[in-house]
Design brief:
The chain is an all-alpha fold and 305 residues long. The protein is 77% helix and 0% strand.
Length: 305
Amino acid sequence: MNALELEFLKRLQEWRTPEIEEFFLQITRSGEGFWLLAIAGSLFWVFGARIAYRMGFALATGDLLTGALKSTVCMPRPWMLDPAIVPVPEAQYGAFGYSFPSGHTANTALLAGGAAAAARKGWVWILAVAWIGLMAFSRMVLGVHTPSDVVASLLLAAPAVMVMGRIYDWTERNPSRAWMVLAGAALAAAAAWGFVRFKPMPEGGDPGFSKDAFRAVWGMLGFFAGWFVERKYIRYEPAKLGGYRVVAVAVGVLVLSLMIGNLPRLLAGFAGLEAASYIAAAANPIWIFVVWPLLLKGLEKPSPR
């Protein structure tokens, strides 16, 4: 992070008005956990495996890489480097952890890019690029990331979307070998956990800043375990639900919201707050890809004879 980038943030800060701040706050909130999971879940419950899993493969892997990279570079937030930078308070509240790269930007690019790559339609790409661009700009306007942070996120997301999409397609062509991807994900998660857990902390570093990476580890494990179980034992087919897909989305998103808002608190009593957040990170994709699709099987229309 150089002086020119910090100066750029100060120029954006001068441009802010209450209306501009509120607009970009709404943009940045669309890249937070609940909305990303709700979008991924809704696409899965309505359209099925291909789009949702291509997104999920990229998002789970890219989120892990982002968390590990944050804990490797250990870049402080902009306002910690220059007190003249005053972030929007509502954005600063959610900007915990290190600065480089931007998790909001990376996750939006992974999700939207994964969806567009799977859909292979021009208008989907237009929407995806618009959302990604607005997200990247919002993080700078709100004063919580620098240009380097958001550019690095985009450079991380692009190959992750391409490579992980191809890996998912390979598992569909070779279902008997899907366990290899699950094993690889478990090994990658274990390696990332060990690296973040045992790497030396920088002088004055906050151990709590690594929690992003640990949550990503558990989220990745939950996603790939859920994908493996669903593809092997459930094989959810939303076309068989007909109009019940509306119910699938409404109830699925409602339960997901309740889980995100309450599960960590309910688990904290016996697991501790930190461990509860990790368990919840794994439980959310299990709900989306295993529990709710299994329950929805009872609403499937019988196949015509």
